[in-house]
């Protein structure tokens, strides 16, 4: 795995371009091990061939769900990762994936139950193993604050990309040109997010509205604090490498971003199964493919080659944030969320290909 990580920092030093499949080598290994573990778990749980095949199928479906929901996450990761120093690229692709798989897919759901049910971590783990239905109900009861927190953080991420006065490549030109010009207005993204939160909170009851609004404020504060910490931490590293933007601050930003993306997948997974360990296996497999896609996007320079691909990803992020705000009011199937993001990214890719054809001399 060390060799695969180092490719990002010093890609194609010998001029050879790795095949697409080579980027997914470790993802295939994890898929095999994960599905084998899921099969074993299914047999231990049910002692029937039918039950075992059901668990196997759920693990596979969860992996596909995670990939479909997180493709835009891979693009955003690649966007940030290309600015990071080689050392921090390697750390994100090793430590970061451990945190993503074990932290967000196992520890995070346990912490939600610990806080919501006011029980100890070990009790939460026992509850997940012995009473998965009750565990699932506790998780679902915490969906409102999670949706408000994650939706606010993701909306800030998406708007910050477009409200940038230095941004000169526009996909939806009539809209993005105005957003770029208005970016000089201090705090415009924050104002838009707060207005959106206030609008959605008015459709909830008094108690739910208070929970929604306070959780959204925490999401906004988290984004701002991560931005501040990123600036302070990374500025101290610029003496080590001229122009280096990516260090501990960027690492923390990507981890919080991954957490926000994971909220929807973790909650949605309970629609397929109540078993925390099956969910961890399925989503963990999907997370490895997101990591592999991130490496491929950075090494191949895909974001530079397809100029509107990032735009599609950030539009998908804003759409996901709105969906998270809507979910406390109306249930939206995860397949709609995944297909919506994939469609926006697909259209942006098609637009990029068309632009390249009409501008063949562009370097």
Automatic annotation (TrEMBL):
Species whose genome carries this gene: Paracoccus limosus
Keywords, comma-separated and alphabetical: Membrane, Transmembrane, Transmembrane helix
Protein name per UniProt: DUF475 domain-containing protein
InterPro entries on file: DUF475 (IPR007427)
PANTHER family linked to this entry: MEMBRANE BOUND PREDICTED REDOX MODULATOR, SLL1022 PROTEIN
Superkingdom of origin: Bacteria
Classification lineage: Bacteria, Pseudomonadati, Pseudomonadota, Alphaproteobacteria, Rhodobacterales
Ranges that cross the membrane: 23-43, 49-71, 92-122, 142-163, 183-205, 211-233, 269-291, 312-330, 336-353
Pfam families: DUF475
């Amino acid at each position: 795995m060390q060799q695969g990580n180092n490719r990002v920092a010093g890609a194609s030093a010998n001029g050879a371009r790795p095949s697409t499949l080579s980027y997914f080598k470790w993802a295939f290994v994890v898929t095999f091990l994960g599905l084998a573990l899921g099969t074993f778990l299914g047999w231990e749980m049910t002692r029937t061939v039918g039950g075992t095949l059901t668990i196997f199928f759920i693990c596979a479906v969860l992996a596909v769900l995670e990939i479909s929901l997180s493709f835009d996450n891979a693009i955003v990761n690649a966007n940030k990762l290309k600015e990071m120093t080689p050392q921090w690229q390697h750390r994100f692709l090793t430590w970061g994936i451990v945190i993503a798989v074990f932290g967000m897919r196992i520890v995070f759901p346990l912490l939600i139950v610990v806080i919501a049910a006011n029980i100890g971590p070990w009790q939460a783990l026992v509850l997940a193993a012995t009473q998965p239905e009750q565990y699932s109900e506790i998780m679902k009861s915490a969906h409102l604050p999670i949706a408000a927190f994650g939706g606010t953080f993701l909306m800030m991420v998406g708007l910050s990309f477009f409200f940038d006065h230095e941004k000169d490549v526009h996909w939806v030109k009539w809209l993005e040109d105005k957003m770029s010009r208005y970016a000089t207005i201090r705090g415009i993204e924050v104002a838009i997010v707060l207005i959106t939160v206030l609008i959605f909170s008015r459709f909830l009851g008094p108690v739910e509205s208070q929970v929604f609004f306070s959780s959204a404020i925490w999401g906004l504060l988290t984004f701002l604090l991560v931005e501040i910490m990123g600036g302070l931490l990374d500025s101290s590293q610029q003496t080590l490498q001229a122009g280096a933007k990516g260090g501990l601050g960027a690492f923390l930003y990507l981890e919080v971003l991954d957490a926000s993306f994971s909220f929807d997948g973790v909650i949605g997974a309970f629609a397929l199964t109540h078993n925390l360990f099956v969910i961890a296996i399925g989503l963990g497999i999907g997370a490895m493919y997101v990591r592999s896609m991130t490496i491929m996007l950075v090494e191949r320079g895909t974001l530079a080659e397809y100029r509107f691909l990032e735009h599609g990803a950030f539009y998908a992020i804003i759409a996901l944030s709105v969906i998270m705000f809507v979910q406390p009011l109306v249930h939206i199937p995860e397949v709609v969320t995944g297909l919506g993001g994939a469609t926006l990214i697909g259209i942006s890719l098609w637009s990029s290909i068309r632009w390249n054809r009409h501008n063949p001399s562009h370097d």
